[in-house]
Specification:
This protein is α/β, with parallel strands linked by helices. The protein has 2 domains: about 120 residues, 3-Layer(aba) Sandwich (Rossmann fold), CATH 3.40.50.2300; about 100 residues, Arc Repressor Mutant, subunit A (Orthogonal Bundle), CATH 1.10.10. It is built from 8 helices and 11 strands.
Length: about 220
């Protein structure tokens, strides 16, 4: 899952990024409203964490413009403005949730999980391809009833593949969704992590779910 954090206070931005990174999310940072709109229009984010008091373009305007551009990404407002009027204004501008600073990081994570459990296309919490099952609520995977131990990045890659089941995903698409802008490695990192997943998901099973489409990319599909 890829998240954009729009926060001009560098200490808070670094804190959020570090915490979310440890949970397996790919995180980009925008430090003003204009940069936020540029990022949001050029990358497939699953969630935007948005401060209201931003330089250049304020958070409410950013939220309204996202909706005017028909971007359906979930928006969580994170701000020190805690009046009822401020909350109503933010939600009316198109935000999905509102969390007031200072906040407990555990609550931020819980709200993120709640928003990602109810995406705009109503994707279910349990994703399944053949005998591979992914519980997106608890970040757990199993195949044929046997739990699979995944690192946070392996989990993110698997979730992206399974949400796009039977679609051929290029290395660039995978990089853009699972890794953030600060990752400078080549696209071979995708091949490396695909190998990791294959060992954990396909080894020991007659039916191989992760397939290479030569010259195109990868797909996860239960079809023969």
């Amino acid at each position: 899952m890829r998240i954009l954090v729009v926060e001009d206070e560098q200490k808070i931005a670094r804190f959020i990024r570090k915490g979310l990174g440890e949970e397996g999310y790919a995180v980009d940072i925008a430090r003003d409203g204009e940069e936020a709109l540029s990022y949001a229009s050029s990358a497939p984010y699953d969630l935007i964490i948005l401060d209201l008091l931003l330089p250049r373009v304020d958070g409410i305007t950013v939220c309204r413009r996202l909706r005017e551009f028909n971007l359906t990404v979930s928006v969580l407002i994170l701000t020190a403005k805690d009046s009822i009027e401020d909350r109503v204004t933010g939600l009316d501008a198109g935000a999905d949730d509102y969390l007031v600073k200072p906040f407990a990081f555990a609550e931020l994570l819980a709200r993120i999980r709640a928003l990602l459990r109810r995406p705009r296309n109503a994707t279910p919490n349990i994703l399944q391809v053949a005998d591979l099952v992914l519980d997106v609520t608890r970040h757990r995977a199993e195949r044929n009833g046997t739990p699979i131990d995944l690192t946070p990045k392996e989990y993110s890659l698997l979730e992206y593949l399974i949400r796009n089941r039977c679609q051929v995903l290029t290395r660039t698409q995978i990089l853009e969704h699972v890794w953030d802008y600060d990752f400078y490695g080549g696209s071979n990192i995708v091949d490396v992590y695909i190998r990791y997943l294959r060992k954990k998901i396909d080894d020991g099973h007659d039916k191989k779910l992760i397939k290479t489409v030569r010259g195109a990319g990868y797909t996860l599909c239960g079809d023969s």
